[in-house]
Design brief:
Helix 5 packs across helix 6. This protein is an all-alpha fold and 121 residues long. Helices cover 58% and strands 0% of the residues.
Amino acid sequence: MTRKTQIEERLAVLSELDTANMTLTEIYESFPCEIKKETLRRFLWKHRIPYVVFQPKQSVSAKSLLDIYKRLKREGGFSYEKLGKALGVSRQRAHMIAIRHGMSQQFAKANCSQPLLTKMD
């Protein structure tokens, strides 16, 4: 297969997709050809094919954050990873949200329920 036919084939596949309303990951997952994600991104850019670049960060209120925290504590333990999954964000982003709302101390206490060091007899 020549390079020109390969490009035409990729463009034909992309013309069938509604790329303007899809993220790069969504396009990559629905793309039938063997291609690396970064190569696909460059291909889209080079051929000026529109796609959604980012998702806006969701806003979390202090009340909803506290409600999620209480629910996670009842369900058997708290972690920033579980908080992130509940909010639909990464663990690091969940930690930053807790800091922004001034609740990191509550969450830190919940994470440190067991001592880090124990005395050996």
